[in-house]
Design a protein that fits this description.
Recoverin, domain 1; 2 domains; 6% strand; 200 residues; globular; 3-stranded antiparallel sheet; mainly alpha; 5 strands; single chain; 10 helices; two-stranded antiparallel ribbon
């Protein structure tokens, strides 16, 4: 007969391969897996690997929005979650009970936002994208985030590409940004663009 798990069996008996190949369902599954969490944090590298495991394309709307849910306030850009409870809150913020539900829920959020671009969801995400762009630029130039005021043109376009491809006026906005504006995005301009998107 099949022997059930005995009281006192140690989870430490798992091999590294067992841990890496385990199906991801809970925050604990991620947090206990060194493939994703190193030195006690889920960093950008671990987050990228988690997206791959979930079938979420890097720099897609879904990946960026998930990063936003996991890390709504950007401190250290290299850290997505600094605790298992933060990761759990992010999963719940996506409306999920487990990780397996994330891809479908994120697609649904994407479709909801793309219907109008006027939701509170979009506004918060749009502001977060700018802060992420600033934090990435600060890292590139080795400066404190507070001293960086703009997002470079190419980085701003990349962030826009992740969330605005379905917006009917985006091709014109993209062309204008590249050919006429042709400079870094300030926070004021980014917020104005967001308001314009909300209105039309």
């Amino acid at each position: 007969h099949k022997e059930g798990k005995r009281y006192g069996d140690e989870p430490g008996a798992e091999t590294q391969a067992d841990v890496s190949n385990r199906v991801l369902r809970t925050a604990a599954d991620v947090w206990n897996n060194p493939e994703y969490v190193q030195t006690g944090v889920l960093g950008q590298e671990g987050f990228s690997k988690l997206c791959v495991a979930l079938g979420i394309e890097e720099m897609s709307f879904e990946a960026c929005f998930l990063n936003h849910l996991f890390c709504p306030r950007i401190g250290d850009v290299l850290i997505v979650c600094s605790s298992k409870s933060e990761l759990q809150r992010g999963i719940e913020a996506a409306g999920c009970h487990n990780l397996a539900e994330l891809p479908a829920k994120l697609r649904a959020r994407k479709h909801s936002i793309e219907k109008s671009y006027g939701t509170a969801d979009f506004t918060a995400f749009w502001k977060w994208l700018f802060e992420m762009g600033v934090a990435i630029q600060a890292l590139k130039v080795n400066a404190p985030s507070a001293s960086v005021r703009t997002v470079p043109l190419d980085a701003g376009i990349q962030l826009m590409d992740a969330c605005l491809l379905a917006w009917w006026l985006y091709p014109k906005l993209r062309k204008f940004s590249l050919e006429v504006h042709n400079q870094a995005f300030t926070k004021d301009l980014w917020i104005q663009i967001g308001r314009f998107i909300n209105l039309v």
